[in-house]
Amino acid sequence: MTLPDLPHLMEAARAWARGSYAMEAAVELLIHHGAWLYRSDFLRMAVEYAPAGYSRIPLAVISWDTLHAALCNGLLPCSNSEAAVLRIALSIAAGHPVDLGPAITRLDTINLAYVLAAVRHAGGDRSAWAVAERDAP
């Protein structure tokens, strides 16, 4: 199935995650990070788009387990920073272990702000993204 343009894909992923702070946080982290949702290999491998059906809302379902396996097996070549963001999103969304020390030290100031916002969001603070965007240099 053909995926929609990026803005519609983002909204479909948000719709799919809605109702779970952890899923919402992980999806927002990927959206704000700005790398993964632009990659065709990522999308082809782990995102299933379901056009509006009964609910009249399209959904973009992310397979966290598929992403974890692909990252661990070298099927998603990326920078250390990109891997760190994805590993943190995987941990927040699906409980995949992440070694925070090395992951956090690979992040620049902007991505660290996004990770902190994701952690706050997962803890129930949906206003965390506005703070992250305001504080990002």
Please, could you describe this protein's structure?
- By secondary structure, the chain is mostly helical.
- Helix content is 61%, strand content 6%.
- The chain contains 8 helices and 2 strands.
- The protein has helices at 6-17, 21-33, 40-46, 64-72, 80-94, 100-105, 109-122, 128-135; strands spanning 47-50, 59-62.
- A two-stranded antiparallel ribbon has the order 1-2.
- Strand 1 (47-50) and strand 2 (59-62) form a beta hairpin.
Radius of gyration from the alpha-carbon trace, in angstroms: 14 Å
How do the helices and strands follow one another from N- to C-terminus? HHHEEHHHHH
Shape assignment: globular
| Quaternary structure | single chain
Mean pLDDT: 92
Share of residues in strands:
5-15%
User: Unreliable stretches, pLDDT < 50, 5 or more residues?
Assistant: none
Notable traits:
137 residues, 2 strands, mainly alpha, 8 helices, 6% strand, single chain
Compile the SSE list and pairings.
Blueprint: H1 6-17, H2 21-33, H3 40-46, E1 47-50, E2 59-62, H4 64-72, H5 80-94, H6 100-105, H7 109-122, H8 128-135
Helix pairs in contact: 1-2, 2-5, 2-7, 4-5, 5-7, 7-8
Brief write-up:
The protein is mainly alpha-helical and 137 residues long. 61% of the residues lie in helices and 6% in strands.
